[in-house]
């Protein structure tokens, strides 16, 4: 029993753990471990887009009804991010939420087995709902954890790099689907059995990963840590109650609109390809989707590079603007031209989700954990917009024409990109974090030496001054 007592899953939010002051070197292991989760839900999301068209073929359902997969998956997110996962996060911490989310993901994957065996679309949607709760729990913890684990000035870079592995997962899944789900055979039963084995493998892997998380010494980040970080950067000099965090609520709204548009486009990408490009089968459409998701992943890596040269909010505005620019002509264009426009749209979608998370959480301080639940809850847009696109596509008998639906939601999300660039109340907290010295080893050495040479700061007690001198003289980082 000693080993279980050693790995406690609860840390008081009122205690300082120094986790918010981690250097780049100290944060590498926990960041790498959490980044695995990003690949997992990217893979799951990519499977969902492929299964959308697969079930239309094998079960003979309409485009609108097949969007039930997205509705079940993303509809679970607010239940997790605003409900059970957020409660666990605020009362116990990040690690318990990681373990909880992985267990739910594994249970949902196991439930999918008999549902697929009996060709029950409703049952499979229920399994996807459980998986969505698991992944919603993981996102509720992983996105803010990546943002705050390490030097604040690199938050947007960290989350975009981690989210790039999400993009890799979305590439792998359609490729797998094109060879496993869309078989060159009339035997639909065999194709469905292959789906079963995929979900069984997922269940085994995530249960094993939950054990790894339990025994891994990843640092906990408390509300007290985040309050300290916000105070040090002066990003929340005017501390407001949670209900008045208007920047947060605008970010959650933008996340709802953006995610809804992104999910709708990816969910009906194969339909778009098969309808607008002559001689394009569902299997070939899945390969095109894999290519588009490859562009999405590439966009994240390129976005990280641009964020080293320009402010993240500037890159965010440029990328979201170009999403609108490229999706608009895809409504009327056909064939290779239309597909190329969708490829470009996915490329520029790449950095939007993680950057909204990072910018929306700037300066929340002690409200960080609660606020992250609202931003991740905005993912519920993925449950609302695809059915609208599916209904529009069925009504007009054209998926291309229905792309006007995600374009409208992109425009709504654009309002946040404009505010965070041109409204001082939005812009200033984001910029103050870029100059923060927390977690920068050289800066901490320099600050300590200046105090040692210049004397004791008036606000420091003799005990605090002595502790600082020891910290500079040793390697206490």
Can you describe this structure?
Pfam families: MFS_1. It is a multi-pass membrane protein. Keywords: Cell membrane, Membrane, Transmembrane, Transmembrane helix. GO terms for molecular function: transmembrane transporter activity. This is MFS general substrate transporter. This protein is an all-alpha fold. The chain has two domains: 21-218 and 246-434, Growth Hormone, Chain: A, CATH 1.20.1250; 441-473, no CATH class. It is built from 21 helices and no strands. Helix 13 packs antiparallel against helix 14 (335-349). The chain is globular, with a radius of gyration of 23 Å. It starts with a helix and ends with a helix. The relative contact order is 0.15. The model is unreliable at 442-477 (pLDDT under 50).
- Global Rg: 23 Å
> What is the percent of helical residues?
over 70%
Largest sheet: none
Count the DSSP helices: 21
CATH class of the largest domain: Mainly Alpha
The computed structural class is: mainly alpha
Distance between the termini: 32 Å
Beta-strand content estimate: under 5%
Order of helices and strands: HHHHHHHHHHHHHHHHHHHHH
Poorly predicted sequence stretches spanning 5 or more consecutive residues: 442-477
Q: Any idea what the CATH architecture of the largest domain is? A: Up-down Bundle
Provide the CATH topology of the largest domain.
Growth Hormone, Chain: A
CATH superfamily of the largest domain: MFS general substrate transporter like domains
Number of DSSP strand runs: 0
**Nearest-integer average pLDDT:** 78
Subcellular location: Cell inner membrane
InterPro entries: MFS, MFS_trans_sf, MFS_TsgA-like
Protein name: MFS general substrate transporter
Pfam families: MFS_1
